[in-house]
Amino acid sequence: MYHQKMFQQWITALIPNLPDGFVFAPVVFPIAKWIGINNCSVPVFQGIPALLQMIVSCPNCLTATQVQAIAQAVAELKLVENTSPIPQPIPKPKLVKRQNQPN
Description:
Blueprint: H1 2-14, E1 27-29, E2 44-46, H2 48-56, H3 64-75
Parallel strand pairs: 1-2
């Protein structure tokens, strides 16, 4: 859901007048024989045919011009290099065996 929201915010800022709710972020398992899901926040599909069926039945279709504009925006995207230092993980403390002390 996060990636769907971020992509939709980015692309609608670049390309105006896109239909509402046109960005979907499904999960596709192309090889799985069995999938057990309950209450997932995104559509989950078993195989490419199920994904294609969802795409074909989608009421919000983009025009060829909109698809080309989105593809071009993605192709031309320049990622900004993160210059802030990456925090190093804190090492896990080593276990210290304590000698049994007489009472």
